[in-house]
Structure formats: structure tokens, C-alpha cells
Write a structure and sequence with these properties.
7 helices, alpha/beta, Ubiquitin-like (UB roll), Cytidine Deaminase, domain 2
Length: about 280
């Protein structure tokens, strides 16, 4: 199996009408581990093991380190990918800090995470926020609902791994005009967000990101990451958690979810939107 494949086909069985089992095939999203190592004067310290889709690893690591508060720009480090040639082995990414920066002077938490993990190893929520949040100031202005709706319509037309497999998550960034900046996918929703953040960081486009769209539910961790990049609107296809709503409410983020073709719930700051129905 190629380490860069996003999906593979596997034999499965289908149960039809409760009484007939038929052999068939299904397209399944690939998930592989990525070990992130920090170069400590030639000695490697493990920072994280992520279960992820095997692509866009540099963007994934950049975005994760940025939203963890470890770096402020891509110029602070260089990344050395070490892909595994074995289908069941662990890929590696080595982080080399530049200049006088060392692991000893870097605050970080050792993170062992699965694809759906956000703050799995943080000892307390306060500890997590103290070092990581906020990174950038919020930009606050109004939005026309038709602009947001136009982005949602564009998403429906995009050729994504999610449409093919049903087994991935995506994150899409758009600017205030509703222009799509990037879309990144992964088996883990936090990984997809970190990949998109990494893209924006590598392309010096953080300031252009105004709206964040995600395929799944709106968790505290995803709202936190949206706040880190200064987004003013976040839209999810699923439901938010109470922590996500509280964080968005407190920090001026308009949070929207449960989007259907002709309906969406607005959980915080509806005054940011202007349209005839509000």
C-alpha cells in the first residue's frame, strides 16, 4: 500500500432487507500514525503521535505547533519528514528549531493523540488555555448570510475524499468575500483543521481567513483553533458542545451549526449577520 494513498478498496459484505448478505467492495479512508519528534541538540523528544490521513504532513505539523502556541511563524523551524516504507510502520516528522531556540526553552506538552483527539493529554483546561490562547486578535465585522450560504453551496460541488469514502473530515477556510482559500481533509477533524492552519501559515494567509467551515460537530478544540487564527464566523454541519458555545460566546465568534439546505442554527452573536430574516 502506498503511504500517500488517501483511500483504498476492501472487500466487505452488505446486508439487504435484513435477510440477504452479499459480498461487495467499499472505499475506505486510509489512517496512518505520524510521530512528531523535537530535535533536542541531536536527541529526539517525542511530542505527539497522530493518527491521520497520510498527506499534507508538513501543513499538519505546522498547524498543530501554531495552535499549540509553540511557534508564531513557519520561519522558526524546519521540518524533516521521514516516511516509512512499511505499510504498518510509523511515519516520522522531525522538528528542527532555528537560531537560539531549543527544546529546553520551548513550552510544550507531550501529546499522544488519536485522529479525533484535541486536548487529550492536557492536564487541565486552564493549563491548555494559559499557554495557547489567544494567539491573534479577533476581527469583528458583519456578514451577509448570502455570502456564507454561497460558500456552503461551493462545498457541495467540491470533489472531496469525504464524498468518495464518507470516512474523512474536512476544514475549509474562506475570506470575508466568501472566496475559498483552502480545503484540507483528514480522518481526524482536528487534523483537518491543523492542516488548513498550516497551509495558511505557510502561505502567510492567516490574516485572510475570516470564515471557518467544518464537516463535523463543533467541539471546544475546533472553536479554539478558529479563534487562534482570528476567524469571526465558524460553521459546522453538526452540533456544537456546550463548551464550544461558551467559548465562542465569550470571545466574539459567531457559531453556526446543523446546516441543512434551507436552514441553519445560530448559537452565538447573530448580530454579526445581516439579512432580511434576522
Amino acid at each position: 500500500m502506498s503511504v500517500t494513498r488517501k483511500w483504498i478498496q476492501r472487500p466487505i459484505w452488505t446486508l439487504r432487507n435484513g435477510d440477504a448478505i452479499e459480498p461487495t467492495t467499499d472505499t475506505i479512508a486510509v489512517e496512518r500514525p505520524l510521530q512528531i519528534l523535537l530535535d533536542d541538540d541531536g536527541q529526539y523528544r517525542e511530542f505527539a503521535v497522530l493518527m491521520r490521513s497520510p498527506d499534507d504532513d508538513i501543513e499538519l505539523v505546522l498547524g498543530l505547533l501554531f495552535t499549540e502556541g509553540i511557534i508564531r511563524s513557519a520561519d522558526e523551524l524546519s521540518l524533516q519528514p521521514i516516511p516509512s516504507l512499511e505499510s504498518d510502520a510509523i511515519d516520522k516528522m522531525v522538528v528542527h528549531f532555528k537560531g537560539e531556540r531549543t527544546v529546553a526553552t520551548t513550552h510544550y506538552r507531550q501529546l499522544a493523540a488519536h485522529a479525533g483527539c484535541g486536548i487529550c493529554s492536557a492536564s487541565t483546561l486552564e493549563h491548555y488555555l494559559e499557554f495557547v490562547y489567544p494567539v491573534l486578535p479577533m476581527r469583528k465585522h458583519s456578514h451577509c448570510w448570502s455570502v456564507i450560504a454561497s460558500v456552503l453551496e461551493q462545498i457541495e460541488d467540491l470533489h472531496t475524499a469525504f464524498r468518495i469514502t464518507g470516512g474523512t473530515h474536512w476544514t475549509l477556510f474562506a475570506n470575508a468575500k466568501g472566496e475559498v482559500l483552502t480545503l484540507r481533509e483528514d480522518v481526524g477533524r482536528h487534523n483537518a483543521m491543523d492542516k488548513a492552519v498550516g497551509w495558511a501559515l505557510a502561505h502567510e494567509a492567516i490574516d485572510q481567513v475570516d470564515m471557518v467551515f467544518v464537516s463535523g460537530r463543533l467541539s471546544f478544540e475546533l472553536v479554539h483553533k478558529a479563534l487562534c487564527i482570528g476567524a469571526s464566523v465558524m460553521v459546522g454541519l453538526g452540533a456544537p458542545s456546550t463548551q464550544a458555545v461558551d467559548l465562542a460566546e465569550h470571545n466574539g465568534l459567531t457559531l453556526m451549526g446543523f446546516w441543512k439546505k434551507h436552514r441553519i442554527n445560530i448559537y452565538t452573536h447573530p448580530s454579526r449577520l445581516h439579512c432580511r430574516s434576522l
